[in-house]
Specification:
The structure holds 3 protein chains of 3 kinds. Chain A contains 11 helices and 12 strands. By secondary structure, chain A is of the alpha+beta class. By secondary structure, chain B is an alpha+beta fold. Classes of the chains: A alpha+beta, B alpha+beta, C alpha+beta.
Chain lengths: ~375, ~450, ~80
């Protein structure tokens, strides 16, 4: 493995350095039919699940096939996407905000061969490489975070929980039977680098044990003031600790009841790990949305306080999700989002219909907004 | 033959949804074979080792990664996230395995030529694994060693005319919806403004001088496909002020069942024949619509443009012509003081190049305020809560507008300022005593 | 403030702090007695001159004198 220089000279980092050029300009990448009709689109229609047509005032049409994808993607897979786009789409494609891949063609005849090609490609274990769907009143791809593949504070895995969930919800990816779209999102700790807080259903990793303190090494590995400052709830203070061999070392002490298990201290200080096989697991949230359609955007609410991590397929979690989706599918009105449905029938009814247990953990006790979530009317249901 | 046994991960190789495990194995195999004779610049078996680490996490129920904060490319305070494996002897291929964020093009359209170039670079100098895309929108390069960071950055800049994205206390890579490129509802060109701001604010994106992260997101209409209103410190949401354009013939076609409602989005179930009263008129949240004698009417001043009727009848109803955007400030995820939705600060502004009005009257005054007054790790929304909405009006000079609130305050505890009260606060106690005994 | 004076101020102040080597941008502004925008120009130059370096938590960025602190050893980047 010989080192091959790009041209960069580490002794003179500023020599010929190119900075601040930003991303490539979007219009370099437009397919011709998009470049020609941008801003001129009249309407669209979903011809079948995953296949859209947009019609322009020029008379042009663009057909889009939307396929699911793993956001964790190898270059081999991207090259296969490129091969398909070269074969059918004149070398153009796009990705959606929700990690779907969209192949666009400019005439209807090109749709069927593209569709057949996409569906014919399967992985060795039988999984689709390019499942078609994710449009209209359906479950589309799950946006998610890294989890155990690459993050230092996750309480669960990202790709694994998503694969398990999408396998269970697959029929609702390829079919449009739901009352409205249902957006599932996943974040692997409460820091939510993938903001899942406004999703119809959110899968959230959660730690339940405070960090361990590696006293012997803490002051050698970390700057104590940094660890203290990292804590959002001011639960960490400096402390002198006597080790088993009698040496006194500088370290930190935790005000445990204050700890919200965010792991921010571990980011600053590797001597404060908090991951735990039993402590860590999943919180389920539901009823959020970002669209302004009919009702205002809403936050998701915690509906299951904790589910243990059950590798590799998280069956308790996927069962609970499936129950919510089925109850919603059965009971909600056309166009009604999951959160709108829950509000119409009442959350007391939601728990009943979804066969979820209501526990004290689901009653808000965090700071001011908590009060506004308690019931302050006689208008409730038995 | 796989380097590590992965019995737990192997169970994720079945079922209909694409398997990331199979895909990682594919890359591991491709690197082992090296049919392209690539001079790999990081360990050839890094994908095998990554599978091994992940299997171990599946077994332990705990992560095996540590964070690193030092690594980066020279002069930039963002774009690279340091990662180290906590079992480097077992998995030497991923002992140092840093993430790089690559600034995505607005709208996420690509040519295969560009993607292939990206693949060639990342296969040679990194793991060959990516995220398409990360949560904020960047292309994520997943895993390389410290010496390769500058090399990747050099090649991106010199060969691909491509820069890194944001992380840390920076402006994060702005993101947008597909917009006018392929959507009839875009009230402004999301890609044009997203790209313009990304380029204009490169210094803010690469050289951290903010108290915390800051996000711009651009949604072309109130459907909010990129979730700007929930996620962006400044959310730009397309809107319009004039009449929704109505094609009465097309309305009739929907009523007559010739056109599928909602663009065919509900075809997976028999919902019965389309009922315009039940599905549109009665669901209109403002009650501003009437359908009588085969004619649809919308009382425009009462409409708040929620998009429902337009979504249901895209061929009959179109957004108005007097277009622009509303701007919302302060959205964020729950950490720390609870989630915040963006709050309306500009009900309507035109979105026209070079966007000077938005930059000079909205973005820059807000940044100046937040940079001076924001506490360390305080998002804009939290500063707004701490110092009050009035302060935001003060720094921007925007006039208060009833549109900015859900409802007026329910407490009368107005902290009047001296200059708001006639005669000020200084009074003569002796004058008062002339009329009031002690 | 000229660059040499600013650098001198920062170096002196940061060396004085005991047990802490990483600082927020706002801390540096206070040391310089400058508003954020002019301070940023001076601080950026200190990065290019390799007087200061960044340390990023991923979500937040801190500044320190180059090579100072325990992180380098803890992160195996020394």
């Amino acid at each position: 493995m010989a080192f091959v220089s790009s041209g960069y000279n580490p002794d003179k980092p500023m020599e010929n350095r190119i900075t601040d050029i930003g991303p490539r300009k979007f219009d370099e990448f437009y397919p011709p039919v998009i470049a020609k009709n941008k801003g001129k689109w009249l309407y669209h229609e979903i011809l079948e699940p995953g296949i859209l047509v947009h019609v322009s005032e020029t008379g042009d049409e663009v057909y889009t096939i939307r396929t699911g994808g793993c956001r964790l993607m190898s270059v081999s897979h991207i090259r296969e996407i490129c091969e398909i786009a070269d074969k059918h789409c004149d070398g153009h494609l796009r990705f959606t905000t929700r990690n779907n891949i969209e192949f666009m063609v400019d005439s209807k005849e090109k749709v069927e061969p593209l569709k057949q090609d996409l569906l014919s490609r399967k992985q060795a274990g039988g999984c689709y490489k390019f499942p078609i769907g994710g449009t209209g009143a359906c479950v589309t791809n799950i946006v998610h975070t890294q989890g155990w593949i690459h993050c230092h504070t996750p309480a669960t895995d990202g790709s694994g929980t998503v694969k398990a969930t999408m396998d269970v919800l697959f029929d609702d990816f390829t079919n449009m039977r739901l009352p409205a779209q249902l957006r599932v999102s996943m974040a692997c700790c409460l820091n939510m680098c993938g903001a899942v807080h406004c999703s119809d259903i959110a899968i959230l990793g959660y730690h339940r044990k405070p960090p361990m303190l590696d006293h012997e090494y803490l002051n050698k590995m970390c700057e104590i003031p940094l660890a203290i400052a990292a804590c959002p709830t001011y639960a960490i203070k400096p402390a002198k600790v006597t080790l088993e061999d009698g040496t006194e070392v500088k370290s930190v002490a935790l005000n445990v009841p204050r700890c919200m298990f965010c792991g921010n201290c571990y980011t600053m200080c590797p001597s404060m790990p908090l991951a735990d096989d039993v402590g860590d697991g999943i919180v389920l949230m539901a009823g959020g949305k970002v669209s302004n359609r009919i009702s205002a955007p809403k936050f998701s609410k915690v509906v299951v306080a904790f589910i243990p991590n059950e590798m590799p397929r998280w069956p308790t979690m996927t069962d609970a999700i499936k129950r919510m989706v089925e109850a919603y599918a059965k009971d909600a009105n056309k166009y009604e989002r999951l959160g709108e449905w829950a509000e119409r029938i009442g959350w007391e009814r939601f728990f009943e219909k979804c066969e979820l247990e209501f526990t004290h953990h689901l009653i808000d006790d965090f700071r001011d907004p908590a009060y506004f979530t308690w019931r302050q009317t006689t208008n409730f249901k038995f | 033959m796989a380097k590590h046994e992965t019995p737990l991960l192997d169970q994720l190789e079945t079922g209909p949804w694409p398997s990331f495990v199979t895909d990682m194995k594919r890359e591991a195999e491709s690197r082992a074979k090296n049919e392209r004779n690539i001079e790999y610049q990081i360990p050839q078996d890094c994908c095998d080792d990554l599978l091994g680490v992940l299997e171990l996490s599946f077994k332990h129920g705990r992560t095996h990664w540590k964070h690193g904060g030092i690594v980066g490319v020279f002069g930039y305070g963002g774009g690279v996230i340091g990662r180290y494996c906590d079992q480097p002897e077992m998995f030497p291929g991923v002992a140092h395995f840093h993430t790089m964020r690559v600034s995505q093009p607005a709208g996420k359209f690509y040519t295969t030529k560009y993607l292939e170039d990206i693949c060639d670079l990342w296969e040679r100098r990194g793991s060959g694994l990516t995220n398409m895309h990360g949560s904020t929108g960047d292309i994520i390069f997943l895993g390389t060693t410290t010496p390769q960071l500058e090399e990747v950055f050099w090649e991106l800049g010199h060969n691909l005319n491509q820069d890194l994205g944001g992380s840390g206390s920076n402006l994060r890579t702005p993101a947008d919806c597909v917009g006018a490129a392929r959507c009839e509802w875009a009230c402004f060109d999301t890609q044009a403004i997203c790209h313009d701001f990304t380029v204009e604010y490169q210094d803010e994106l690469h050289r951290p001088a903010f108290p915390y992260k800051f996000k711009f997101k651009f949604d072309g209409c109130p459907n909010c496909c990129v979730a700007s209103i929930a996620r962006a410190d400044l959310a730009f949401v397309g809107t319009w002020r004039d009449d929704i354009k109505i094609d009465q013939e097309a309305v009739k076609a929907y009523v007559g069942g010739e056109l599928p409602p909602n663009g065919g989005s509900h075809s997976g179930r028999d919902w019965g024949p389309f009922d315009i009263r039940k599905e549109v008129i009665d669901l209109c949240p403002t009650g501003c619509m009437r359908y009588e004698d085969g004619k649809l009417e919308i009382n425009t001043p009462e409409c708040y443009r929620c998009m429902h009727c337009i979504n249901v009848m895209p061929r009959a109803l179109r957004i108005g012509n007097d277009r622009g955007c509303s701007i919302f400030a302060g959205a964020k995820a729950p950490i720390l003081d609870g989630a915040q939705m963006g709050s309306l600060i500009v009900p309507f502004i035109k979105v026209e190049e070079p966007y000077d009005e938005i930059k000079e009257t909205v973005i820059e005054p807000i940044w100046d305020w937040w940079m001076e007054e924001g506490k360390n790790r305080e998002r804009l929304g939290e500063l707004m809560k701490r110092q009050g909405f009035q302060k935001l009006l003060e720094v921007t000079g925007f006039k208060p507008d009833a549109r900015m609130v859900q409802e007026p305050r329910t407490n009368p505890y107005i902290f009047w300022k001296e200059d708001e009260v006639e005669g000020g606060f200084d009074r003569d106690i002796n004058e008062y005593r002339k009329y009031h005994q002690r | 403030m000229d660059q040499a004076e600013a650098t001198e101020k920062i170096v002196t102040a940061l060396k004085k702090k005991k047990g802490k080597t990483k600082f927020y941008f706002n801390d540096l502004c206070k040391i310089l007695g400058e508003k954020p925008r002019p301070a940023k120009k001076l601080i950026n130059k200190m990065i290019i001159d390799e007087v200061l370096e960044y340390w990023s938590s991923g979500s937040t960025t801190l500044y320190s004198l180059k090579g100072v602190g325990k992180q380098a050893a803890a992160e195996h980047e020394d």
